[in-house]
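Regression check, uracil case 229:
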Amino acid sequence: MRIDRWVSQATDLSRKQVHAALKEGRISVNNGAVTSPAFPVRADDVVSLDGENIKAAGARYFMLHKPAGYLCATTDAHHPTVLDLLDEPNRHGLQIVGRLDLDTTGLLLITDDGRWNHRVTSPKRECAKTYLATLAEPLVDTAEEQFRQGILLRNETHPTRPATVETLPNNQCRVTISEGRYHQVKRMLGAVNNRVIALHRERIGNISLDPTLTEGSYRPLTTEEISSI
Ligand code: URA
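Current build output:
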């Protein structure tokens, strides 16, 4: 991996700050100062910053219980972002795995493993996502069949993939989809003449939101959870 990426993943420094440190001769590989940002770091190289050895970053995987009001973005001028909830070094190296709307709560996965992120979000993988929706109106009887058949959403050319919807008490329903179109659950429920008042993601593939996580808290994924995707 390039030295600038390697150091920025392993420390709190941004790529820009690493470039400055390289220019200033503060970064060494195997005791030799390195100035080129593209210098290749190999698995057994010893990298140091200001004379202190740096430990290589391992891939990180987290589940967060997203509260409403936090944006799924790395930075934003108007709202706090989900990354603000993480007390982790090198937060800028983390990626949000599939987005939730500002007002949606529940399971959000965060990683710095780009290939794993792709495995979860790639439409080809058809990874199932389950949501609990609170509705403005009782769900119509035909919704189950319409979701199963696929719904042609406004301004789209292809119907949605087969999905399930289960009616629950108190105007709630549980929806499982295997795509990630823009506002998909809200639009599908809108297409059956309803309106979502609250939306909460419960599950992605085999990973369920840990019931011990309160809103805004997070934990690392277990090895089993990571390899279940
Ligand atoms: N579908 C939506 O409409 N919103 C979300 O946040 C996630 C899925």
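Comparison notes: The longest strand covers residues 196-204. The pocket of uracil is lined by residues 100-101, 104, 183-186, 199 (CB under 6 Å). No diff flagged against the previous build.
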